[in-house]
């Protein structure tokens, strides 16, 4: 009897290949070989008969994929904290175990740092200035003509979703002496309150903040939480940062607000449809900084991702407790 099969999708296959891992000892590991994200149809064709799938947030694991895999499928491991791309209900009903990252401390730090990086890139016009100077060195002499560079000092910070990542962002931003710090969550958070932050409704955070940073989890409840009405309620000078999930922000409404200067700028690591399409309007706007869902990524985090991914798969193979299982 041959080894059971694992299928590894594009974005993390090369990391597993290049790392020292135990998977090849136990499994026949198939890696998506192309330098592009596989389509849903290609995913369906590649999972037939597999024991497990290692996927990313870009890969939708729905009932079609689960049915295509067949009765051998025992485990899905996503290399992400979020699992909204997985049909959890169907997987649970079929007894298929689910592994995820469960907010490792290393990832909390990197996402917090990336959010702050996006905030400075937009508020201080760092990305714009860099591109302008590359295109035209005379911009050096024109650089003060557009003095719309904002500071964190004496500003109002608003955080939507104050879990581990939101709290980590707050802790770091307080070093820059904002005037106010608001946060929205299901209930008050003692750690945030101890830092002097004020628990407010989502509406209040959107209306009263200079910088709105989205770190909430995506769910049916939070889908389009930052909708057209809330975007329209923001200050004309407001900057929106999203390092959570694209579906939390109503992207069409955000694009229109940015085009019409209803809000000042946005820094986005996540989008409603990923990977981003070349004709996405956001890429043509000069008041947006977009990064490719990379907030979590660092060398330290990759080591942690690989360790957890391998251990989650091996735990199912050996019929033992997974180190990070979605229960």
Automatic annotation (TrEMBL):
<dbReference type="InterPro" id="IPR050223">
    <property type="entry name" value="D-isomer_2-hydroxyacid_DH"/>
</dbReference>
<dbReference type="InterPro" id="IPR006140">
    <property type="entry name" value="D-isomer_DH_NAD-bd"/>
</dbReference>
<dbReference type="InterPro" id="IPR036291">
    <property type="entry name" value="NAD(P)-bd_dom_sf"/>
</dbReference>
<comment type="similarity">
    <text>Belongs to the D-isomer specific 2-hydroxyacid dehydrogenase family.</text>
</comment>
<dbReference type="GO" id="GO:0005829">
    <property type="term" value="C:cytosol"/>
</dbReference>
<dbReference type="InterPro" id="IPR029753">
    <property type="entry name" value="D-isomer_DH_CS"/>
</dbReference>
<keyword id="KW-0520">NAD</keyword>
<dbReference type="GO" id="GO:0030267">
    <property type="term" value="F:glyoxylate reductase (NADPH) activity"/>
</dbReference>
<dbReference type="InterPro" id="IPR006139">
    <property type="entry name" value="D-isomer_2_OHA_DH_cat_dom"/>
</dbReference>
<keyword id="KW-0560">Oxidoreductase</keyword>
<feature type="domain" description="D-isomer specific 2-hydroxyacid dehydrogenase NAD-binding">
    <location>
        <begin position="116"/>
        <end position="295"/>
    </location>
</feature>
<protein>
    <recommendedName>
        <fullName>Glycerate dehydrogenase</fullName>
    </recommendedName>
</protein>
<feature type="domain" description="D-isomer specific 2-hydroxyacid dehydrogenase catalytic">
    <location>
        <begin position="25"/>
        <end position="325"/>
    </location>
</feature>
<dbReference type="GO" id="GO:0016618">
    <property type="term" value="F:hydroxypyruvate reductase [NAD(P)H] activity"/>
</dbReference>
<dbReference type="GO" id="GO:0051287">
    <property type="term" value="F:NAD binding"/>
</dbReference>
<dbReference type="Pfam" id="PF02826">
    <property type="entry name" value="2-Hacid_dh_C"/>
</dbReference>
<dbReference type="Pfam" id="PF00389">
    <property type="entry name" value="2-Hacid_dh"/>
</dbReference>
């Amino acid at each position: 009897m041959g080894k059971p099969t694992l299928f590894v999708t594009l974005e993390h296959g090369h990391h597993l290949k290049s790392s020292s891992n135990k998977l090849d000892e136990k499994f026949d590991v198939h890696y998506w070989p192309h330098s592009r994200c596989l389509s849903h149809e290609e995913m369906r064709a590649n999972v037939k008969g597999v024991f497990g799938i290692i996927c990313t947030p870009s890969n939708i694991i729905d009932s079609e994929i689960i049915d295509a895999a067949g009765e051998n499928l025992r485990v899905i491991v996503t290399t992400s904290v979020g699992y909204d791309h997985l049909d959890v209900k169907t997987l649970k009903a079929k007894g298929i175990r689910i592994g995820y990252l469960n907010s490792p401390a290393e990832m909390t730090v990197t996402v917090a740092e990336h959010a702050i990086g996006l905030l400075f890139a937009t508020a201080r016009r760092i990305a714009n200035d860099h591109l302008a100077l590359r295109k035209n060195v005379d911009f050096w002499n024109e650089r003060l003509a557009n003095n719309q560079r904002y500071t964190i000092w004496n500003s109002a910070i608003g955080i939507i979703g104050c879990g581990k990542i939101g709290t980590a962002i707050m802790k770091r931003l307080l070093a820059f002496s904002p005037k106010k710090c608001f946060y929205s969550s299901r209930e008050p958070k003692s750690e945030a309150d101890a830092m002097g932050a004020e628990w407010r409704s989502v509406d209040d955070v959107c209306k009263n903040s200079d910088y709105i940073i989205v770190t909430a989890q995506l769910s049916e409840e939070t889908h389009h939480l930052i909708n057209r009405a809330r975007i329209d309620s923001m200050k004309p000078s407001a900057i929106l940062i999203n390092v959570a999930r694209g579906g939390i922000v109503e992207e069409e409404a955000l694009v229109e607000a940015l085009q019409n200067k209803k809000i000042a700028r946005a820094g986005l690591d996540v989008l409603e449809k990923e990977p981003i399409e070349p004709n996405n309007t956001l890429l043509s706007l000069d008041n947006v900084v977009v990064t490719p869902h990379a907030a979590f990524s660092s060398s330290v985090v990759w080591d942690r991702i690989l360790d957890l991914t391998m251990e989650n798969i091996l735990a199912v193979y050996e019929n033992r407790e997974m180190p990070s299982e979605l229960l």
